[in-house]
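Task: sequence design from structure.
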């Protein structure tokens, strides 16, 4: 993942074609070769003509190279079209939350989220958050059991100061028992997709205003309200029954009253019969 300023919308950046450059160079070399060849043929000794086998082989080699360059050109065209199609499809990710393989997470609106996966149980583990200058801004104890664990951060440092939104690096260090092999830690980060861009190497998505990731590193795409759920420090709001639920409750209450009235009437009738 790479730090960026921002991505807005879809940007198709033009790139120079390496096959086109090679074709231009080959054409220049071929013209030079033909000029030298025709000059040699023009001034050759008629009684001792030059051997044609050598320059014939050279012509064959030039032809083979030209075909290879044309093949590369076609492949570059197909690759460019594929990148364009992927970029166009990735536009639908804008506004949604992406889970990306990596360790640089965007802090957005005082909220950042990541996961870390331990391949084995460890004796201790610590999560450290650093800014892009390498300064530690926050740390806490991490889970020590094998598996995937979530980490949410409210963007406050150890002193409780709210930090600016931006890119922050998450590191998970572990300690294992003596003689054991070190644990493998895999981290993923979450960020709202703000834009899509591409170059000759592939398609990239912008996360927040400070982080970008390759399209191939995206693991999952979530709804745009994913960050609004269970933010750090916020209590879960009690659910309010919908109108349909109220009607169902009223119906049950009415049915209970009818049954109670019928039961009282039955008891009264039985009492009169005994008398």
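Answer:
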């Amino acid at each position: 993942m790479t730090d960026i300023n921002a991505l807005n919308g879809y940007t198709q950046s033009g790139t120079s074609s390496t096959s086109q450059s090679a074709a231009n160079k080959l054409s220049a070399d071929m013209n030079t070769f033909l000029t030298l060849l025709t000059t040699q043929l023009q001034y050759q000794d008629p009684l001792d003509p030059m051997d044609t086998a050598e320059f014939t082989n050279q012509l064959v080699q030039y032809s083979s190279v030209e075909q290879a360059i044309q093949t590369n050109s076609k492949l570059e065209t197909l690759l460019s079209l594929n990148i364009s199609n992927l970029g166009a499809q990735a536009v639908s990710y804008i506004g949604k939350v992406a889970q990306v393989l990596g360790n640089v997470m965007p802090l957005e609106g005082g909220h950042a989220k990541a996961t870390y996966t331990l391949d084995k149980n460890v004796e201790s583990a610590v999560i450290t958050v650093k800014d892009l200058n390498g300064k530690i801004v926050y740390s806490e104890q991490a889970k020590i059991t094998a598996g995937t664990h979530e980490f949410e951060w409210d963007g406050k440092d150890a002193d409780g100061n709210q930090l600016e939104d931006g890119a922050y690096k998450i590191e998970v260090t572990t300690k294992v028992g003596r003689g054991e092999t070190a644990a493998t830690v895999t981290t993923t980060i979450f960020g709202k997709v703000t834009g899509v861009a591409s170059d000759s190497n592939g398609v990239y998505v912008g996360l927040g205003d400070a982080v970008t990731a390759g399209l191939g590193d995206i693991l999952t795409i979530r709804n745009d309200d994913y960050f609004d759920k269970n933010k750090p420090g916020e209590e879960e709001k009690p659910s309010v029954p919908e109108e349909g639920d109220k009607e169902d409750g009223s119906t049950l209450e009415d049915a209970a009253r009818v049954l109670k009235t019928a039961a009282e009437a039955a008891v009264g009738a039985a009492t009169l019969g005994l008398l």
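The radius of gyration is 35 Å.
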